[in-house]
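call fold(seq) -> tokens
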Amino acid sequence: MDSESEEQFRQFVEGRSLALRRFAYVISGDMYNAEDLVQGALAKLVKKWRKIDDPERYVRRIIYNDQASRWRRRGVVREDPAGHVPERQSADPAGDVQRRLDVQRALWLLAPRQRAVLVLRFYEDLPEREVAVVMDCSVGTVRSQTSRALGRLRQLAPELNGENSSLPVEKGTRP
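ret:
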């Protein structure tokens, strides 16, 4: 790798590492796994740095695919042993922290693919086409997975369906 490419790669890593780690954490649920996923994806990226037009898309796809491989190898979806979202234990004056915790817990009760599509669509704010590229599926699959995941999320965490709902609303649907 020449010095110009090396500098571009270094700038990419410095500028996007935090966002990539956040994405990997939300997908994997574990900071150590997230760091491993990002490090492995960047190691793969550096080998193809000159050939890749959109390095961030490439890295996100690697992160998703590597985590999906881990899910398949494990064969078991990580679930909350309680099997439900518990009632709020303490009152939070702003409500934001508790709401985020409720959403996070409910997300972990979803199937991995449904969780991934919601994270990519609403946390990472990617358009359906980009999500389809990352997940290696059609836009229609992204739409149906999003709809099913939001429906399941509403079942798992009905307390999030109030007037100030934390759940995203798709076009043409009502909470």
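Residues 93-175 form a domain with the Arc Repressor Mutant, subunit A fold (CATH 1.10.10.10).
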